[in-house]
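Async update (no meeting this week)

Hi team, since we skipped the sync, here's where things stand on the single-chain job. The sequence we agreed to prioritize is pasted below, unchanged from the tracker. I ran it this morning and attached the output directly underneath so nobody has to dig for it. Comments welcome in thread, and please keep replies under the output.
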Amino acid sequence: MSQRISRAYKIAKTFLTYGLDEIIPARWLPWSLRIGRYGLFWMPNKHKQKSAGARLRLALESLGPVWVKFGQMLSTRRDLLPPDIANELAKLQDKVRAFPGEQAQQLIEKALGLQHINDAFDDFSVQPLASASIAQVHTARLKHGDDAGADVVIKVIRPDIRADIDADLRLMETLAGVLARHLPDGRRLKPKEVVKEYRKTLLDELDLLREAGNAIQLKRNFENSPLLYIPTVYSDYSRHNVMVMERIDGIPVSDVDTLMAMGVNMKILAERGVEVFFTQVFRDSFFHADMHPGNIFVSRDNPDNPSYLGIDFGIVGTLNREDKRYLAENFLAFFNRDYRKVAELHVDSGWVPAHINVEEFESAIRTVCEPIFNKPLAEISFGHVLVNLFNTARRFEMEVQPQLVLLQKTLLYVEGLGRTLYPQLDLWQTAKPFLEKWMKEQLGWRAVVRSLQENAPFWAEKLPEMPTLLYDYLKSQRPQALAQQQLLAQMREAQQRQSRQIGWAAVTCGLIISTTILYVTEQPLWLVASTAAVAVLCGAVLWRRKNS
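Output:
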């Protein structure tokens, strides 16, 4: 607990010494917080000369990777932030303060069991190529093997980062518990489940062997694809805290001026970004969930038919068949403006309680979504749309789906990417044909044929065994049937015995009551004694039957 209090104090002190409280309009803050700020007079803003964006970026950097990643996500939402703040937060994508290159070299040598870095690599650069929140990368060339001479990058996890992450996550879990108990929307928003999902995602990112496996899977999914190229991972040189992969030569997707100067077809590039997203989600059920601009590059080859280059695969998302189906149907219904279908799907999937009035929910969705149709990204204020959608969700008790948090974050990245590259992009018309084709493949005759093809090897293997399995099944049924008959006979006998016991118990109770009544009304003694004797006799019979 003391550790959490200490971390909470550090966060509050960081926010105040960088003057982040001054960025938030005073009218948005409760009176208690405004008074509390005056009480913390020993924590003045020490960076008044810096811009608001620079103060926010530096504060997030100083708090560590959990907060840096939050800033990375915000940096893609230029429609929600002033330009100066968005530009500063964009520096968090690959310009985080580096740790010493000599220390990185020692970590690499220790992880790979090298006496010296030159035993495996030539031209190792002590100066990092890029530095991010979790790790930083250095350039080198492979020295041995079939790929000797290949240019590579070596990714190294920051030293002693786990303790800071654990402290922040514990604090977030505590805050989530408080929100779940005290916020009116706490149960619906599921803050504890969201933080739990975030914990898993962030800790997975600390394991570079896991990232290497993700990269290999994504590369296989997009083998020979014109949409996306994934660099080769050299698994022999990869460990939990070190990963070696092919060095790519691309243009950062955020460098729009260079892309324009090279004559890159921005319309095709933006449309392919949408197609990459939907292909990963609905075809592969395995998607890159950290697609901020620092992790996406554009190939220098063939600018008229551009393709993407992807890096940093520490965070990936998956969807089960049911969630994927509901999402596809929701998207299609939304693109077709079938708001009734959208409302019904939310109820059927359990995302909205069954007692909600579907007609009212349909009307609310139409009110939010209809104004943004047939408009390019440049003309859509997603800030207003998100606020309205949140208010609608709260009104109709729609629960947050923790398994979809990564997907929602990735969709925000894709939308922000499209806004940067080609603001005239019609997101709806770009995505609709792809989803319609996917749904036809899932529901039509093609789905039946594909299912038969997928299961054919299994049935071909099991078919010769079917006669034996059928014979064994029929043979086993006779003993089971006899056992069931014996069990039923025993149950019937027990029921009959129980019925007789109940009968004797009823007679005994009746005689006891009769004896009492006769005695109270002062009837002849011989009659009272006779009734009592019969009651005792019936009680004895009942006791004997019960214990026999």
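Quick observations from my side:
The chain is about 60% helix and 10% strand.
Residues 2-93 form one domain.
Reply here if anything looks off.
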